[in-house]
Design goal:
Blueprint (H helix, E strand, L loop, with lengths): L1 H5 L3 H11 L7 H7 L1 H8 L7 E7 L4 H16 L3 E6 L18 H7 L6 H13 L5 E3 L6 H13 L15 H13 L10 H25 L4 E5 L6 H10 L3 E7 L5 E6 L3 H7 L12 H13 L19 H8 L7 E5 L18 H14 L4 E5 L3 H4 L8 H9 L6 E4 L7 H6 L3 E4 L5 H6 L4 E3 L12 E2 L3 H9 L9 H17 L1 E3 L3 E3 L5 E3 L13 H12 L11
Helix pairs in contact: 3-4, 8-10, 9-10, 10-11, 13-21
């Protein structure tokens, strides 16, 4: 059955092939057998050891069980007492669920959005982790029948309009439920979705179940640190919420952009921590020609993505500014301002610094403003990930603009997500660029382009951009356009230090993780000792951070 579904769905097809191909799961049994004495000695270590929870939870994520099983082994080799957490079909909905997988809504609403796929999610992950001989815990074992009834009642009783802000004993179960449900629909709102309320309530119920189960698990085992991917959605967002509330240190991770690299963050998802990272973590880098050359060459490679495993542009994109001006019909006698969107549904979390309710409100109000400014032109680049991402958006920005405005103002030019126009080249013809949450602010400042940040972009608070603090502040800034001056040399050097920190120091390399053709990456090891302390500088930085709380910063400048 999964094969038939996979043939109709790109994401499921990737997962299907990854799990059925032996090449994409680590050969831990073989590696441990070759170093049986070493591994057994680590498992049987006595005395006080750091207790670490690897909270994979969802086994369907091939990249998560690859990296997190690797961390489980590496941490055990460093003397940690490592435990594993998996979901054993306890949740009616999780981030594995997606609207494109729902073939029978009546069944899904009654039995759970995830239930049809649980049998393909749990067993492979359980089998692989079991081969390590480490303790494995299941969410379902830490939820009592009376708590399941309470989860039913609470998820049914909260008024729909209040779910997003609903707290359960101080835990933001509603925020993560709403983010999970929006991800399920690949939309920024539930408008027009006939089953939106029951779907949202299933995510709320799953959030509550996860909260109850995690409280009991953490009460029984006194973990020093919990490690798991991304840290948002269901169940991982709730795992993080409960850990923080119970005083358990949290480490989240995500794949980096550069091949073989990963971003790790302390305490919360990197979506939030990167904005508040202290400037002193990178500002004192001793900048020289070697670092400058390495960074500039890498940033140029981002135009085609040849050094990355996450990218949305390629070598065939149109990168001649003169041709782009002609294609778009830009009036060269008037200044142009760029605007970069995000995928509407992605990471719909609460950010205290947001001055707009959401990205679309910001976008619409900006277009209304520019309609009045006939002395300026607005070039809107819609994010290519709308159609090229792992989960294509079902709410297209261009459609939303057309619905809101009917006729697009004559001084507003839109580059759709499927366009072959290079985003970098298009923005290079602009006086300045306005962004909401895109990571391209880091690259634009390196190009000397002034950037106005209206949302939750990581480039905020770095002394590099014009950061908006209120709507009034935002429109006052727009009144000052065009700025007419590129960034000065000192600001560009500061931007390059931060870009170097972001791409080369925060994105930690793991040399034994290889790009795969059917999965995002796979692990290739010859022997267990490759994971011992001192064998991999990147792995040492990661494990030291997990065990001691040290910074997840790779010292690339000293390499």
């Amino acid at each position: 059955m999964l094969k038939e579904i996979a043939q109709k769905n790109q994401l499921l097809r990737l997962i299907y092939h990854a799990f059925l191909s032996k090449n994409y799961l680590p050969k831990w049994s073989r590696l441990l057998a070759n170093d049986e004495k070493l591994w057994k000695s680590k498992l049987e270590s006595s005395g006080k050891r750091p207790k670490i929870l690897i909270a994979t939870a969802v086994g369907f994520q091939i990249h998560s069980i690859n990296i997190e099983s690797l961390l489980a082994v590496a941490l055990t080799l460093r003397g940690a007492d490592v435990h594993i957490l998996l979901c054993d079909s306890a949740l009616p909905a999780c981030f594995t669920s997606h609207v494109t997988k729902c073939r029978n809504w009546n069944t899904a609403i009654v039995n759970g959005l995830s239930k049809e796929y649980c049998r393909y999610c749990f067993p492979p992950a359980h089998k692989m982790y079991r081969s390590l001989g480490l303790p494995i815990h299941f969410l379902g074992n830490f939820i009592k029948p009376k708590e399941m009834i309470k989860a039913d009642l609470l998820s049914a009783d909260v008024p729909t309009a209040e779910i997003n802000n609903y707290l359960l004993d101080g835990v933001a179960v509603g925020e993560h439920a709403a983010a999970g449900a929006l991800r399920f629909y690949s939309r920024g709102s539930f408008d027009g979705e006939p089953y939106a309320e029951p779907v949202l309530r299933q995510y709320l119920k799953s959030s509550i179940i996860t909260t109850f189960a995690m409280r009991r698990l953490l009460g029984e085992f006194q973990y020093d640190c919990a490690v798991f991917s991304h840290g948002i959605y269901v169940p991982h967002g709730l795992i993080g919420e409960v850990c923080r509330k119970e005083g358990v240190r949290v480490v989240n991770w995500n794949p980096g952009y550069r091949k073989k690299s990963f971003i790790f963050s302390h305490h919360n998802t990197y979506h939030k921590t990167m904005m508040d990272e202290p400037v002193d973590k990178w500002i004192n880098i001793v900048w020289d020609k070697r670092l400058e050359s390495n960074l500039v060459n890498y940033l140029k490679s981002r135009w085609t993505g040849k050094e990355d495993w996450i990218w949305f542009s390629d070598a065939s994109a149109e990168s001649d500014p003169a041709k782009i001006i002609k294609i778009l019909g830009i009036d060269k006698s008037k200044p142009s301002v760029g605007l970069l969107t995000n995928v509407v549904w992605d990471a719909q979390l609460h950010y205290p610094q947001n001055v707009f309710a959401n990205m679309l409100e910001w976008l619409f109000e900006t277009i209304v403003y520019f309609k009045k400014r006939q002395d300026l032109q607005l070039i809107i680049r819609i994010h290519p990930a709308e159609i090229k991402g792992a989960i294509p958006s079902r709410q297209k920005v261009l459609n939303e603009i057309r619905k809101a405005f009917g006729q697009i103002p004559g001084n507003v030019f839109i580059i759709p997500p499927e366009s072959r126009i290079s985003t970098y080249a298009a923005m290079s013809i602009c006086d300045s660029v306005i962004i909401y949450g895109t990571k391209m602010g880091t690259e634009l400042t390196n190009m000397g382009i002034p950037v106005i940040v209206a949302g939750e972009a990581w480039i905020r608070n770095k002394g590099l951009t014009i950061d908006v603090s209120s709507k009034e502040d935002y429109f006052r800034l727009l009144e000052k356009l065009p700025l007419r001056n590129p960034l000065d040399k000192l600001t560009i050097e500061r931007a390059r230090k931060y870009a170097f920190h972001f791409f080369f120091r925060r994105m930690i390399p793991l040399e034994f993780v290889k790009p795969g053709s059917k999965a995002l990456f796979k692990i290739k090891l010859s022997e267990l000792r490759e994971l011992m302390p001192g064998s991999s500088k990147g792995l040492d930085v990661i494990c030291d951070g997990i065990l001691s709380g040290s910074d997840f910063i790779y010292p690339e400048e000293t390499a």
